[in-house]
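hey
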């Protein structure tokens, strides 16, 4: 069985399954889901807990299998937690997980919890994951994307009896909050908790939020890519500043931007040659969120614009490697900013 994270609370209210798989990269949400399952288990008499972390290809699974098959003298029910930080159980782990899945069916004395990072399609189609999902409940824990972050913050504030002003003023406050914590959900949670300590329940003034919430945002080059392709000029510049402050390598940022520009040019050339847009995107391995962004940008991208962007990417490649280019900033980050904003403005047009 597979359920969404927001369905977990209602599901636990109806009773526990013998096995749960939590998979996703958002540590805060995975920990909260784990805590909710543990609390439900404790309420039903699961008083003992064993925890194992699978580290390396030579991990000894015999201890895990033994724990699942034995109880201490002092507990009638137990929880067995298995963490696989790599998401790869290895040759010995595959049959072990399948054995655990088989043992979990109808087992009301042992609750098995398997914690995994974000899995790709191949892993979710594997025999071991299918066995786990078939024996219990799989919960996919997706990150809170930037567009959903203000609503997530508002929901968390409401849970502690606080809110922002209604209307446009409140939305500006939430957007400010989201800008300060983007890409760092655990810190966002801590900043929300801090507001509960500083101010009473009720409506928060914008000045109170601005004074209290620290800038703890964390960015990566892939989110920068999405912001640029979405034409979000101000957000792209803020992310570039953040990446520079965090010490990100200039060549990596350039690679992400240049790869998008090259992909846009390849797909545009394929369309000009008569290929349908969906086929051109598939052939160039463009899918997911980026596919939707390409579908919006490409119909209005002119050939001359694509050629200029490609030339700019070539010039900035030299700048971040120490070459001097006439009419361009000689500082690598300034050149990257100019390239990113040039692409973002084309995408926003």
């Amino acid at each position: 069985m597979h359920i969404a994270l927001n369905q977990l609370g209602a599901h636990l209210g109806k009773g526990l399954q013998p096995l749960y798989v939590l998979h996703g990269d958002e540590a805060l949400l995975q920990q909260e889901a784990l805590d909710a399952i543990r609390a439900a288990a404790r309420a039903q008499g699961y008083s003992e807990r064993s925890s194992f972390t699978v580290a390396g290809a030579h991990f000894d699974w015999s201890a895990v299998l033994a724990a699942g098959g034995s109880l201490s003298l002092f507990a009638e029910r137990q929880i067995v937690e298995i963490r696989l930080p790599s998401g790869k159980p290895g040759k010995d782990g595959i049959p072990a997980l399948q054995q655990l899945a088989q043992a979990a069916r109808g087992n009301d004395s042992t609750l098995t919890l398997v914690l995994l990072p974000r899995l790709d399609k191949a892993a979710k189609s594997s025999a071991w994951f299918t066995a786990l999902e078939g024996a219990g409940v799989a919960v996919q824990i997706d990150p809170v994307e930037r567009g959903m972050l203000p609503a997530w913050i508002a929901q968390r504030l409401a849970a502690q009896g606080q809110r922002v002003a209604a209307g446009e003023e409140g939305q500006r406050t939430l957007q400010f909050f989201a800008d300060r914590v983007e890409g760092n959900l655990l810190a966002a949670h801590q900043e929300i908790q801090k507001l509960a300590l500083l101010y009473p329940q009720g409506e928060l003034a914008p000045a109170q939020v601005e004074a209290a919430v620290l800038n703890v945002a964390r960015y990566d080059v892939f989110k920068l890519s999405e912001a640029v392709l979405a034409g979000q000029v101000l957000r792209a510049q803020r992310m570039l500043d953040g990446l520079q402050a965090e010490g990100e390598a200039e060549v990596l940022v350039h690679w992400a931007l240049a790869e998008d520009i090259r992909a846009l040019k390849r797909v545009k050339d394929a369309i000009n040659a008569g290929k349908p847009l969906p086929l051109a995107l598939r052939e160039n391995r463009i899918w997911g969120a980026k596919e939707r962004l390409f579908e919006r940008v490409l119909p209005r991208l002119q050939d001359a614009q694509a050629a200029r962007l490609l030339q700019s990417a070539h010039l900035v490649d030299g700048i971040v490697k120490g070459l001097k280019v006439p009419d361009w900033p000689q500082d690598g980050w300034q050149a990257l900013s100019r390239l990113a904003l040039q692409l973002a403005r084309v995408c926003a047009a």
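The radius of gyration is 25 Å. Residues 250-272 form the longest helix (23 residues).
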